[in-house]
Write a structure and sequence with these properties.
CATH topology of the largest domain: Helix Hairpins
Radius of gyration: 63 Å
CATH class of the largest domain: Mainly Alpha
Number of helices: 6
Mean pLDDT: 74
CATH architecture of the largest domain: Orthogonal Bundle
Structural class: mainly alpha
Low-confidence stretches: none
Number of strands: 0
Largest sheet: none
Order of helices and strands: HHHHHH
Strand content: under 5%
């Protein structure tokens, strides 16, 4: 049955079977993982229940112990710890009510809650008697049967509860271990099965391909050999034709480039002549600008000299005035000193020194006027100095322009010399290009002869190639039918 299958169907079958097995094994693994997660959650729940049961026992024990400690020491810390134990008991009890679902365990939780109420009530009575100063009565109550009986019953119930919970925890751990072992078994078994089946199907598909193609390979090899020989012959012919065509193309390109070059060089010669004329005109204009610039520079330099001379004269006047102000200041100081001395000596007769005081004021006025004049002169000097600076800057700019114009003149005449040399070279190149065009025409004729011979050889080789291609077509048709 499998021998009549086509090659494509066999390959698809070889892929589909391992994929189906992989999907099945993946489904089993997912189901098992889900069961394992549930078992793990139940295990954690059992552990939480056991932990909360232990907290119940510790809280009840703490209430009894701290009540007795308060009777002996009357420390507030014992009383606070007792009340905290009651709160811890109620907290753990609330958690157990949420976690426990078994009816028997729920009944035990109810019993523990009732016993805890008895214990905390008796403990609070002992604390109250102690607070009232009835320590002996509190001690007697602690030794009585009710509280001990309640504690003993509490321990019995909590022990039964814990034993039952440990049993459940053991069962759930065993279930979890069993599911993990089952998961490992499924994973290893499925992997091994998929590998073995895929290997067997690969071997079967390889055998099918070998049987299908074995008969066609011989024919294909023979046809390939014939085509290879033909292709080699074609390759040689094509190489010759390619060389001839390349040579022809290169020659034609040389002719085109030579013609274009001749045209371009003629245009370049005209452009260069035009540029040479423009450069000559620019050189003339630049020379004129240089002359004008030099004249402006000379005038501005003369202006700078005049401004500096005027500044020198004003500086001399400032020196004279400054000396006069110094002398007046000295005399003023002396007169003021004499006036003070005379006024001290004369007493009532010191009125005569009013004249001296008046002279002092006059000298002071003169000093003020001289100072104002000096300030005015200083202002004029500053203005003159600024004017000199501006003139100097304009002279500097003019000098730079003259330098730039001179440089442009030099470059202009240098460019004229270069363009003249290039015009001469272009004329020589035109002659050379004409000679190359004559040689290129001869090469084109020879290349065309080679192309004619190659065309004849190409016709014979084409017939051989056609026969080989027909054989390959038959083989391809046969393979297509099998696939």
């Amino acid at each position: 049955m499998f021998k009549n299958l086509k090659l494509r169907t066999s390959i698809l079958l070889g892929f589909s079977v391992p994929i189906a097995l992989f999907i099945l094994s993946s489904f089993l693994v997912v189901v098992n993982v889900h069961d394992t997660e549930q078992a793990t959650n139940l295990t954690f729940t059992s552990r939480d229940i056991s932990q909360n049961a232990l907290e119940l026992e510790l809280a009840a024990s703490s209430i009894i112990r701290e009540a007795q400690g308060y009777i002996l020491t009357q420390h507030q810390a014992n009383k606070d710890t007792m009340e905290q134990g009651d709160r811890d008991f109620l907290s753990a009890l609330g958690k157990l009510n949420v976690l426990v679902t078994d009816q028997e365990q729920q009944a035990r939780i109810t019993q523990l809650q009732a016993l805890q109420k008895d214990i905390i009530a008796i403990a609070r009575q002992e604390v109250e008697l102690t607070d009232q100063g009835k320590v002996q009565a509190a001690i007697d109550m602690a030794k009585t049967t009710p509280i001990m009986t309640a504690w003993t019953n509490f321990k019995v119930v909590i022990s039964t509860f814990s034993d039952q919970q440990r049993s459940v925890l053991g069962e759930r751990l065993a279930r979890q271990a069993s599911l993990l072992q089952q998961l490992r078994t499924i994973a290893w078994s499925s992997s091994l099965a998929v590998t073995v089946i895929a290997l067997l199907l690969g071997i079967w598909i390889a055998a099918r391909i070998n049987n299908v193609l074995s008969g066609s390979v011989g024919t294909l090899a023979s046809s390939s050999a014939e085509i290879s020989a033909t292709v080699e012959q074609h390759e040689r012919t094509i190489l010759q034709q390619t060389a001839s065509v390349s040579e022809t193309t290169a020659t034609a390109e040389e002719l085109r480039v030579s013609a274009q070059t001749s045209s371009d060089q003629a245009e370049n010669a005209a452009i260069m002549v035009k540029k040479a004329m423009e450069l000559i005109e620019e050189g003339s204009v630049s020379a004129q600008r240089s002359t004008v610039g030099m004249g402006d520079l000379q005038k501005k330099v003369q202006g700078v000299a005049e401004q500096i001379l005027q500044l020198s004269e004003q500086a001399g006047q400032i020196g004279v005035i400054a000396k006069l102000v110094g002398d007046l200041a000295s005399e003023t100081n002396m007169l003021a000193l004499n006036a003070a001395v005379e006024a001290a000596r004369a007493g009532e007769n010191g009125k005569g020194f009013a004249v001296v005081a008046s002279e002092v004021r006059k000298l002071a006025d003169q000093s003020k006027k001289s100072a104002e004049r000096a300030n005015a002169l200083v202002t004029e000097i500053q203005k003159a100095t600024n004017s000199a600076v501006m003139v100097a800057e304009e002279g500097s700019k003019t000098a730079k322009e003259v330098f730039t114009i001179s440089t442009q003149n030099s470059e202009t005449f240098q460019a004229l010399a270069e363009y003249s040399g290039m015009i001469d070279q272009n004329a020589q190149q035109v002659v050379l290009n004409s000679r190359q065009q004559a040689g290129a025409l001869s090469q084109i004729s020879e290349a065309m002869k080679n192309l004619n011979v190659g065309s004849t050889e190409m016709m014979t080789a084409t017939k051989q190639t056609k026969a080989g291609l027909q054989n390959l077509t038959d083989v391809a048709t046969s393979l297509k039918a099998m696939i």
